[in-house]
Amino acid sequence: MNQKGPRLGEPASLWRMRLVPIITVMLASALPLMLPLVASSPVLPPLGLLFFLSWQLLRTEMWPVWVGLPLGLWDDLFSGAPIGTAVCLWTAASIAIAYAAQRIYWRGFFHDWAIGALLVAIIQALAALLTHPHALTGRVVALVAPQIIVSILLVPLFLRLTGKFDNFRLKRR
Amino acid sequence: MVRPAHRRPGQSRKAQYSLFVAYVIAVTGAVAGLLLAVLSVVDPVGFAQLRVASHEVTAPIARVSRSAIGSISGIDDAVSAYVGAGSQNRRLRKELAATRRQLVATSSLQEENRQLKALLKLQETDKTAIANGYLLTSTSTSSKRIALLSIGRNLGVASGQPVRGADGLIGRILGSGPSVSQVLLITDIDNIVPVRRARDGLPALAYGRGNGDLDIRTLNIANNPFKPGDILVTSGTGGLYPPNIPVAIVVRRQDDGALARPLADPAKVDAVSVLRPYTPENAEAQLAPAPDAVPEVPKAP
Asked: Which end of chain A has the lower number of beta carbons within 10 A, N or C?
């Protein structure tokens, strides 16, 4: 009985359960700056934000509501937006998801998509407005509008991907 | 179907307090983040170092992926090229015919210009670059247009230096780390370049639109003198950008100026050079070998 090593059917290690979500979000935030892509407009969807929202929609109680502070700071370092933007907006999104989880007791796929879409749209628009406070509001929103539409269409894909990562995270030995 | 959350902590005081504390941390942190964001908009230089440090981490991966894949040229460009292919073809044929005629005239002007310059004994201004590098990657998820340059302080790159490609102006250095530096592209909304029309020296300002194009606005708004095909070069006004670097070509007129497309596409440019900032001292140093020269850089006749 006192043999070393994992036993059959034992739950996944605590480290894996905790680190997989954090690492996916952090990698997704830093990924655009690892690709050899010099963009002339915001062409990529906010990958880090989409994973962050998907994890919280899938596992509402996994993270405390303040998890947006460190993860948002990490995203700010790579996104190019002024540092502090994602810290504020991501945490606000966490609180919004926690609130929605209390109001809508049994959330379905379309609930999740709607909540994710709404949050992505608000966060991207507000982040752009915070980045360029002196520019015309309409122009700044129009600049990120195509990116917001693509991101909204990609929310189901990211929910699926997060589900795959979640299966890996909880896989029993 | 998502499992419902059990946010109610029940009767346990400890659970109630820890949930309350989590919310207090979240709200204070969010407010602090907002203040930080406002602060970093007001003083971008202070936080640039922090960001450059993080880019140092991803730069090696960007170098490897760039050498493996090569540069992915603008995705949005490829899409819009498909849409506008027919009208573009027609326009280009027309332009080609006009350019052929102009080429003949220009070659004679060039010769004349060379002779006149020799007469004036003007020295070519010091156009040597501080260093040459290439653009590794850029921010592509936010509305800020910052590219990562493959060289940094190790080759003397410092913030405020202009960056140009072979075709024209790319931007200016925002911050530099030990081995990489950030370039704020001229298409960024917050970047303004003083330009003049190459043909007649009409002064104007080029504002980035954030989507790869530039807004050109004249200083007097009484009339709109721009025509499609006008070439704009830097004027050197206000320092920073040295004069006579090509910037953009006017695509179409607008109510308050013109819409222009940068001549150097950062997505397709291969190598870029970092230049000395055009400050009064630098300009005087450049003119020092020829003290009797006119203070302004000569324009083509």
From this structure: N
Q: In this complex, is the C-beta atom of B221 within 8 Å of any C-beta atom belonging to chain A?
A: no
pLDDT 10s digits, A10-42: 888 888 899 999 999 999 999 988 888 888 888
Please count the residue pairs, one from chain A and one from chain B, whose beta carbons lie less than 8 angstroms apart: 233
Angle between helices B44-69 and A68-79 (to 10 degrees): 70
The model's pTM: 0.81
**pLDDT single digits (tens) B218-255:** 877 667 788 888 889 998 888 889 888 899 999 988 88
Q: What's A31's DSSP letter?
A: G
Q: CB atoms < 10 A from the CB of B191, how many?
A: 18
Q: Is B111 on the interface with A (CB under 8 A)?
A: no
DSSP assignment of A69-123 equals HHHHHHHHHHH-SPTTHHHHHHHHHHHHHHHHHHHSSS--HHHHHHHHHHHHHHH
Cα A22 off chain centre by? 10
Range B81-99 average pLDDT: 84
Instruction: Assess whether pLDDT exceeds 90 at residue A56.
Output: yes
Q: How far is Cα A65 from Cα B2, in angstroms, rounded to an integer? A: 18
Cβ(B210)–Cβ(B143) under 8 Å? yes
Token look-up 């009985």 returns A1
Q: Using CA atoms, how far apart are residues A125 and B142, in angstroms rounded to an integer?
A: 10
Phi/psi zone of residue B251: left (φ > 0), alpha (ψ -120 to 50 degrees), beta? alpha
B134 at interface of A, judged by CB pairs closer than 8 A: no
Of B1, B23, B41, the CB nearest to A133: B41
Cα(B284)–Cα(A149) distance, rounded to whole angstroms?
52
Tell me if residue A147 falls in helix, strand or coil: helix
Per-residue pLDDT reduced to its tens digit, A85-94: 999 999 999 9
pLDDT at B267 over 50: yes
Q: Range with the lowest mean pLDDT among B61-65, B71-75, B137-141? A: B71-75
Q: Are A8 and A173 in contact (CB under 8 A)?
A: yes
- Write the residue in B34, B44, B212 that is nearest to A88 by C-beta: B34
Cross-chain residue pair B76–A40, CB shorter than 8 Å:
yes
